[in-house]
């Protein structure tokens, strides 16, 4: 697949054993912006494409989680809508929270991919098997991750990493075939011309 041709084989090899994809929320699932109304209500914008890949990750037996440093109702609502396997909010020690989850689920740190964008994510990014950051993450974060996404926060970063993992594991081409309207000969069966 041409989209992944820029990714080195060693990076694809790091993504092959991934059994869990975990992400930060603000700055990854969102652009990091916060909109407040006069009553103090907080609003955020999320990329729908990030949520659409979740069922395919589940089908590939890859668990999904969200770890957020902020404790905000709208973030929890989005995590529930996405039906992620777990989400924790208001964290100051993301690695500690993830360690407990991994212990409960019997998953090794080497089998985890994490997407983060700022200092609170740094320790965790350096302990997992595959680390990624949006292109607009802090420069010192970009220097520490395995993969710098082509997209910025809130622009489909989670989807980009999920697709990369599914591609590395050989599962993305099958998903494309299953969801294509083309018949095996490469022609569109609904085209009557």
Automatic annotation (TrEMBL):
<feature type="binding site">
    <location>
        <position position="70"/>
    </location>
    <ligand>
        <name>substrate</name>
    </ligand>
</feature>
<keyword id="KW-0479">Metal-binding</keyword>
<keyword id="KW-0378">Hydrolase</keyword>
<comment type="subunit">
    <text>Homotetramer.</text>
</comment>
<dbReference type="GO" id="GO:0046872">
    <property type="term" value="F:metal ion binding"/>
</dbReference>
<protein>
    <submittedName>
        <fullName>3-deoxy-D-manno-octulosonate 8-phosphate phosphatase (KDO 8-P phosphatase)</fullName>
    </submittedName>
</protein>
<feature type="binding site">
    <location>
        <position position="55"/>
    </location>
    <ligand>
        <name>substrate</name>
    </ligand>
</feature>
<feature type="binding site">
    <location>
        <position position="78"/>
    </location>
    <ligand>
        <name>substrate</name>
    </ligand>
</feature>
<dbReference type="InterPro" id="IPR036412">
    <property type="entry name" value="HAD-like_sf"/>
</dbReference>
<keyword id="KW-0460">Magnesium</keyword>
<feature type="binding site">
    <location>
        <position position="117"/>
    </location>
    <ligand>
        <name>Mg(2+)</name>
    </ligand>
</feature>
<feature type="binding site">
    <location>
        <position position="24"/>
    </location>
    <ligand>
        <name>Mg(2+)</name>
    </ligand>
</feature>
<dbReference type="InterPro" id="IPR010023">
    <property type="entry name" value="KdsC_fam"/>
</dbReference>
<feature type="binding site">
    <location>
        <position position="94"/>
    </location>
    <ligand>
        <name>substrate</name>
    </ligand>
</feature>
<dbReference type="InterPro" id="IPR050793">
    <property type="entry name" value="CMP-NeuNAc_synthase"/>
</dbReference>
<dbReference type="InterPro" id="IPR023214">
    <property type="entry name" value="HAD_sf"/>
</dbReference>
<dbReference type="Pfam" id="PF08282">
    <property type="entry name" value="Hydrolase_3"/>
</dbReference>
<dbReference type="GO" id="GO:0016788">
    <property type="term" value="F:hydrolase activity, acting on ester bonds"/>
</dbReference>
<comment type="similarity">
    <text>Belongs to the KdsC family.</text>
</comment>
<dbReference type="GO" id="GO:0008781">
    <property type="term" value="F:N-acylneuraminate cytidylyltransferase activity"/>
</dbReference>
<feature type="binding site">
    <location>
        <position position="26"/>
    </location>
    <ligand>
        <name>substrate</name>
    </ligand>
</feature>
């Amino acid at each position: 697949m041409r989209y992944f041709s820029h990714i080195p084989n060693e990076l694809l090899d790091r993504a092959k054993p991934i059994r869990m994809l975990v992400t930060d929320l603000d700055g990854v699932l969102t652009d990091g912006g916060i909109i407040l109304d006069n009553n103090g209500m907080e609003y955020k914008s999320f990329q729908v494409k990030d949520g659409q890949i979740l069922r395919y990750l589940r089908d590939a037996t890859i668990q999904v989680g969200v770890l957020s440093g902020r404790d905000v109702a709208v973030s929890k609502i989005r995590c529930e809508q996405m039906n992620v396997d777990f989400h924790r909010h208001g964290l100051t020690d993301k690695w500690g929270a993830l360690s407990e989850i991994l212990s409960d689920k019997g998953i090794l740190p080497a089998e985890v991919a994490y997407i983060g964008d700022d200092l609170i994510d740094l320790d965790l990014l350096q302990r997992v098997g595959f680390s990624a950051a949006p292109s607009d993450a802090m420069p010192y974060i970009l220097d520490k991750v395995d993969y710098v996404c082509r997209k910025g926060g809130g622009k489909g970063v989670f989807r980009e990493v999920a697709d990369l993992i599914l591609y590395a594991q050989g599962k993305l081409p099958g998903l494309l075939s299953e969801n294509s309207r083309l018949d095996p000969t490469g022609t569109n069966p609904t085209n009557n011309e």
